[in-house]
Amino acid sequence: RGTKDDQAGAFPGSRSDAGLAFQHHALNPLEADALLVDEASMLGLGVGHALLEALPPTCQLVLVGDEDQLPSVGPGGLFGALLATRAAPVVDLRQVFRQAARSRIVAGALAVREGLTPQFENVEWTPDGGLSAAHAPASGSLFPADAVLVRVPSPALVPLALGDVVQSLCFDPGAPFAPDDVQVLAPQRVGPSGTRELNALLQQLFHARQASAGGETGEEAPFSFALHPSSANSSKGVARAWQAGDRVLQTVNCYEKNVFNGDQGRIARVSHGDAGLALEVAFPHLEAQPLEGGGVDGGLRTYVGASLQELEWAYAITVHKAQGSEFPAIVLVLNPQHRHMLDRRLLYT
User: Fold this and answer.
1) Dmax over Cα atoms in the chain, in whole Å?
2) Which tens digit of pLDDT belongs to each residue from 10-38?
3) Which residues, at least 6 apart from 58, have a Cβ–Cβ distance to it below 8 Å?
4) Which of 195, 297, 181 is nearest to 238 (CA)?
5) Is residue 168 in some structural domain?
6) Do 71 and 41 touch, CB atoms closer than 8 A?
7) How many CB atoms lie within 10 A of CB 221?
């Protein structure tokens, strides 16, 4: 855990890139007999070095990870390098418990890892006809398998096709998932079909569909995608119009709020006061967390001023940001315009 540089605990060599210092280091080691680090493939050289310095000499370190997944964003590739040296005992875990034995997700991941083409159920999409399965499934669903490949005729049409896919997954009558179950992923944040653009589009879809679902007539409101205009006041390149109910993502560690990079929440309230725009965000994983003085946290956090820059929409997030998380359903957008990001590790992850 980090603390400000000028507070107690700063130690040479233990500072992070964000100008923070770790409270535990060689002079103040962790009190632990054993430490288990999950998703260790995400461990970079800087944090890995600080972690090893903070371990007491008698502590046993267990790293759990998948060397075939995306490496750390920062330099180092520590986990893969340690495996290559075989300097420590290595145990390979072969049995998958997350999916069923015949899951196409599992079979597809293994195929990708070996450099083979995964065998997924094909679904075609056209601007006029929408989604259509290559072979009409007996279940009547367009998504009879747990891994389906939707083909789109042109990269420019990917956002429109995505709208139809999400609609079929969580908004159509008899849809197999609830809206909160579906997470859209993309290889990168910027450019066509990047998460910034997709979030602006998906925000419109989710609010339009949820509004029509709550209407008195029960009739579905007409909907068509339209990009938010660029804004000189938006450092993210896409103008944001925050709305109550928006899914949001915390993008930096904030120890004061006890929310961290990758945490997802939902905007409970949008207000405008003397300090300008303020968002009240509910983080479900914090609701029942006990407080030192008694009671529970409640999970609400307020963002105003500069802290608003800590948030992004979470309808679509990058594969890197999703690494280590688990969702009932994901839609992975693979656009040829992302070709410099499209490699075997990204798809396998």
Assistant:
1) 68
2) 334 444 445 567 889 999 999 999 999 99
3) 33
4) 195
5) yes
6) yes
7) 11
pLDDT digits (tens, 9 = 90+) for 40-56: 998 888 889 999 999 99
Give the C-alpha separation, 85 to 78, whole Å: 11
Contact 259, 250 (CB under 8 A): yes
Q: What residues make up the domain containing 40? A: 1-6+15-93
Q: What angle separates helix 195-213 from helix 158-170, to the nearest 10 degrees?
A: 40
Query: Other CB atoms closer than 10 Å to residue 296's CB: what's the count?
Result: 11
Secondary structure (DSSP) of 254-271: BTTTTB-TT-EEEEEEEE
Tell me, yes or no, whether 32 lies in a domain. Answer: yes
244 CB contacts (<8 Å, ≥6 apart)?
267, 268, 269, 270
pLDDT tens-digit profile of 188-212? 998 888 999 999 999 999 998 877 7
- 124 within domain boundaries: no
Question: Which residue intervals of 227-317 are DSSP H helices?
Answer: none
Distance CA 232, CA 225 (A): 22
Predicted TM-score of the model (pTM)? 0.81
Tokens describing residue 130:
């929408």
Of 349, 344, 346, nearest in space to 112 by CA: 344
